[in-house]
Amino acid sequence: MMASDGVNGTPGCRFIKEETVYQGEWLSLGVTTYQDPQGQHRTWETVRRTTRCDGYKTDGATVVAVLKRALHYDQLILVQQFRPAINAFTLEFPAGLCDAGESVEDCAIRELREETGYTGQVISVSPTTCMDPGLSNSTTCLVTAQIDGDDIVNIRPKPHPEEGEFLKVLYFPMNELLTRINDFTKKEAVTVDSRVYMYAMALQLSKGKDPVQRSPGRIDKK
Ligand SMILES: Nc1nc(=O)[nH]c2c1ncn2[C@H]1C[C@H](O)[C@@H](COP(=O)(O)OP(=O)(O)O)O1
Questions:
Q1: Are 105 and 143 in contact (CB under 8 A)?
Q2: What is the pLDDT of residue 190?
């Protein structure tokens, strides 16, 4: 169903226009005018990436990469990264933006290699998913990948981060992912990307375990 379609026969919403308020090198801030179901025009403040390639629906790829080695537990590869926008270190999946002409699969494999040094093999690719739709039109595809840790190319992985990227590669056992991420956040001042945390919660739930960590009503202060 398109955004302009109604639900159960009611009129829907539709995009009217976009006015750019600020145009930077990487991002733009615009005011989006849309029509609500009653026909009234409303506005929304919208962040867009300037880097999305022509004809692409997806800005980039997010790589859920599992390192597999003989006689070792499977490990999820995550990156700890300084993110200036939140003035904090984050725990994220390796990820990055698509180059022009690059498929999402190729983007995933390239970003995995740049950020972690590992050469992986794509297992699956999600549809385009949105990242923070109340803020921006930013989108990503979730690409699952396997890394053969016994392959010679993966014995001593050497990351090649881009200029301005400051990353540390971290390994979390898949069989106790949520517990280990929770433990990590208690020791290190990191903010966990919600995709990572949701993935860990879903794994926990799939084992029939409850992913509760914090007490209800608590406020996370700075
Ligand atoms: N919002 C951004 N502001 C910047 O000043 N620079 C940015 C933004 N987004 C991306 N970039 C630049 C910085 C690096 O050179 C590359 C990294 O992008 P990529 O690795 O593809 O994506 P992320 O890992 O998600 O940052 O882009």
A1: yes
A2: 97
Query: What residue's CA is closest to ligand 1, atom 25?
Result: 96
Protein residue closest via CA to atom 2 of ligand 1: 26
Ligand 1 pocket, residues with Cβ under 6 angstroms:
26-27, 60, 95-97, 162-165
Could you read off the pLDDT of 12-22 as tens digits, one per residue?
A: 899 999 999 99
Per this entry, what is the length of the chain? Answer: 222
Is residue 2 in some structural domain?
no
Q: Helix, strand or coil for residue 154?
A: helix
Q: Which regions of the chain are under pLDDT 50?
A: 1
- Total domains present in the chain: 2
- The answer on 64 and 36 residing in a single domain is no
Measured distance CA(160)–CA(114) in Å, rounded:
5
